[in-house]
Specification:
The protein is α+β, with helices and mostly antiparallel strands. Helix 4 packs antiparallel against helix 7.
């Protein structure tokens, strides 16, 4: 459990007091506990009002000063509300993008690895159905071309001095291939990593919508495919459930390419955030599958700079091996 950057009780924040009055008619919290806010730096709390638990998120910095174009609450909160209306995200009780405060229902998370009430195939089907429902939502705003935005992030990560020079060189070839594909734009979460999938014992909720905007449908599909389908049959099930039919060879190839894009995205996010904290002289380390197993069992691997670096390096090694294989050339041909 990580402590919020806000050293004060959250109800001492004027925007939070305003939110509590609007949502509950009181400024008094029964209790509050800081919880992990991921990599965004936001203050995230489990709070109780009238004995009921809610999730309170307080953005750091003001709009236009201390927030970049990706972390814009005006866009992120709009997407969150649409997702909540579609019953994909927890119910939103209050959201003010100018104050950077949002209150939503609190979901008591359980382990997908240990507590999921179904088979691995059931999990893949549920995730595919959630992604399909998400992509059917109308109203997510555009932001940037996803590949162009990722290119800027890769540049930042490559200059961070965290990984050896040339660690991101494979990205240029992959980006060139994917830029030749016609985008299939949908309302997209854009960061469906395991930490943003919350299982309550009955169903899965999608959380943390700050990176949401219109992007290629395969961005979300690839994020799921890189973590949960354990074999080609699971990947075929993912696509069959999503499309409502068997996927074509071109669709399978496009997913393969975007799975590599997703690896690059996660590597770049972690590496860029580690600037000045840790450095790797080589790209070796634990393989990605073993790290995913440890994460699924609840190990706080990503709570330390060393763990985040190991995860980023594993993603980079996976991309390098895949782009060096014959599958890359085959995917290029089929996806076109």
């Amino acid at each position: 459990m990580s402590v919020s950057p806000d050293p004060l009780c959250p109800d001492q924040h004027p925007g939070v007091r305003k939110a509590l009055r609007a949502a509950f008619g009181t400024e008094v919290l029964d209790g509050w506990t800081p919880v992990s806010g991921g990599l965004s730096g936001a203050g995230v709390y489990k709070v109780r009002v009238g004995g009921i638990a809610y999730l309170l998120r307080v953005e750091t910095g003001r709009v236009g000063a201390g927030r970049d174009g990706l972390r814009d609450p005006h866009r992120g909160y709009a997407c969150l509300k649409l997702a909540a209306q579609a019953c994909l995200a927890p119910r939103v009780r209050y959201a003010d993008p100018d104050d950077g405060v949002v209150i939503s229902d609190f979901i008591e998370a359980r382990s997908l690895a240990l507590d999921y009430a179904g088979t691995r195939a059931d999990l893949v089907v549920e995730l595919a159905q959630a992604v399909r429902a998400l992509h059917a939502i109308e109203g997510f705003p555009p932001l940037v071309d996803y590949l162009d935005g990722l290119d800027a992030l890769v540049g930042e990560a490559a200059r961070a001095g965290v990984v050896p020079v040339g660690a991101f060189d494979d990205w240029a070839r992959l980006r060139a291939v994917c830029k030749r594909l016609t985008p299939q734009l949908v309302s997209s979460h854009n960061d469906l990593n395991p930490g943003n999938l919350v299982y309550d014992g009955r169903r899965i909720w999608l959380v943390d919508w700050e990176a949401a905007f219109r992007a290629d449908r395969y961005v979300d599909l690839a994020a799921i495919a890189n973590t949960y389908p354990a074999d080609p049959e699971g990947e075929a099930l993912l696509l069959r459930t999503y499309f409502g039919r068997e996927a074509s060879a071109a669709e399978r190839a496009r997913l393969w390419l975007f799975r590599q894009v997703s690896h690059v995205f996660h590597a770049a996010v972690f590496v860029a955030g580690l600037k000045g904290k840790v450095r790797a002289e080589r790209l070796d380390g634990p393989d990605l599958d073993s790290l995913h197993q440890r994460l699924a069992l609840g190990e706080p691997l990503l709570a330390t700079p060393e763990g985040r670096l190991a995860y980023g390096l594993a993603r980079l090694r996976t991309v390098g091996a895949n782009l060096a294989s014959s599958a890359f050339a085959e995917a290029i041909t089929l996806a076109r």
